[in-house]
Amino acid sequence: MTDAAIDIRAGSFKPGTSDAEIEAAAAKAAQHRRRTVTFWRLAILIVFLVAWEVAGRMAWIDPFFYATPSAIAQRLYEWTTEGTSEGPLWYHLYVTMEESVLGFVTGSVAGIVIGVALGRNRMAADIFSIYIKVINSIPRVVLAPIFIMILGLGLASKVALAFVMVFFVVFHNAFQGVREADRSMIANARILGASDWQLTRSVIVPSAMSWIFASLHVSFGFAIIGAIVGEFVGSRYGIGLLINIAKGSFDAAGMYAAIVIIMVVALGAEYLMTMVENRLAKWRPQPLHETQ
């Protein structure tokens, strides 16, 4: 329900108000809401950074362990303009992103395909569920040294860990989304003579898209975590390597700078995923928080 709709129900629009005026009022209210959200986001960030900087300079916290925003910004500037001790920052970022994207894409595709397949086949789901639960119970960090031992320090071990991090998140949502598909729509499609493939493609998968996209929103972050953990355990390049080196030299600013880079990339991926979701799911009703 838009703010304009609320005003209409409250009687604040006079009888005979045109649709164009109502739409203009709704657009104005939506724009005001976006500006308010942006203002408070920036205000909270600025207050947090200023408080952190002041606390470090006044020695309320130890800058040796917590660094300061100015020191972190200085380290980022040095890495960007002069490079790191292990080579250009952009190459390390490229390596981590390559590992993350490959793990995200392969893990997402596998999770969706297997989740939908098992969601549609109850017998197969009952047979394989125990194995999926057992494998999913293994801590991901434990797999990092195993993958590195088997696949080496290169790309493959990091992609494998990112794949595992992504797969189970997407799989469980795809599986549950298929199980929660609208039974009335399925029954109607069967009455109209839809085959199993047509039913899956045209009814069940679209019905599960909200579940799938909900998992994809968080999965890229998990893919980055998998790549970083793998690099942290053993690698020649990557943001995880920079964190490991900064940790070994007690460079708090370097560790936080690497974390800032990861957060910016993850935030960009989140916005990109939202754009893709909005494009592919135009048929879906607007979320409540976007219309209030």
TrEMBL record:
Cellular localization per UniProt: Cell membrane
GO biological process, alphabetically ordered: transmembrane transport
Domain ABC transmembrane type-1 residues, every copy: 93-273
Superkingdom as given in the UniProt entry: Bacteria
Pfam family, one: BPD_transp_1
Membrane topology value: Multi-pass membrane protein
Gene Ontology cellular component list: plasma membrane
UniProt-listed PANTHER family: ABC TRANSPORTER PERMEASE PROTEIN HI_0355-RELATED (PTHR30151:SF20), ALKANE SULFONATE ABC TRANSPORTER-RELATED, MEMBRANE SUBUNIT (PTHR30151)
Protein name: ABC transporter permease
